[in-house]
Amino acid sequence: MRLLLQFRFLPLTLSALLALASLGAAIVWPAWAFFFTCAFVGFAMLTALGLRDITQTRHAVLRNYPIAAHLRFLLESIRPEMRQYFFEGEKDGAPFPRDKRAIVYQRAKKELDKRPFGTMFDVYQEQYEWLHHSLAPTAPLPVDQMRVQVGRYSASLLNISAMSYGALSANAI
Question: Domain coordinates of the chain in residue numbers?
Fold first, then answer.
């Protein structure tokens, strides 16, 4: 009896007590006998499951936490779906992130697969830096502000790479 009063055996103890209570209620209130009999059958089945969990030797979790361990196994079986739908971000996921997977699904269904320009990243965090383009700059910057001195060399802050302006040949493309 002391074993069944431990906290880890609470679901088993409650199911056994509720089975007995529903059987007694079915006897006391015959008008509700069908309802209480159904409750008795359900709680008796849970009690039998708990007793089977205690006597089995394959899973220590089931033996130590009868009935409640089945909830763990249920949640463990639906873990990938829970992650995918509730916890995974647009840029997370393996082997492909959700946003890339969505494009593949759209193409497979012959739906519009074009995405507008933009990003799902939070570009206002500290590690993101960018330059804003302006069609009409307000004032020209002095030339000395566009260069930085590196030793004796005056380097430009903005450089144009060697690949710019069509530097690639047709063969390289």
Answer: 3-77
Q: CB under 8 Å to 147, separation ≥6 — which residues?
A: 154, 155, 156, 157
Report the alpha-carbon distance of residue 12 to residue 28 in Å, rounded: 24
Per-residue pLDDT of the chain (173 residues; tens, 9 = 90+): 565 568 888 899 999 999 999 999 999 998 998 999 999 999 999 999 999 999 998 888 889 999 999 988 898 888 877 877 777 666 676 677 777 777 887 888 887 777 666 676 777 788 877 777 777 777 777 766 778 888 888 887 776 665 655 566 666 55
- Give Cα separations from 35 to 57, 95, 125 (angstroms): 35, 50, 59
DSSP 52-100: HHHH-SS-HHHHHSTTHHHHHHHHHHTHHHHIIIII--TT--SSS-HHH
**Contact yes or no for 54/66 (Cβ under 8 A):** yes
Q: Name the token pair of 116.
A: 């507008």
Q: Rounded to two decimals, what is the model's pTM?
A: 0.48
Cβ–Cβ under 8 Å, residues 46 and 35: no
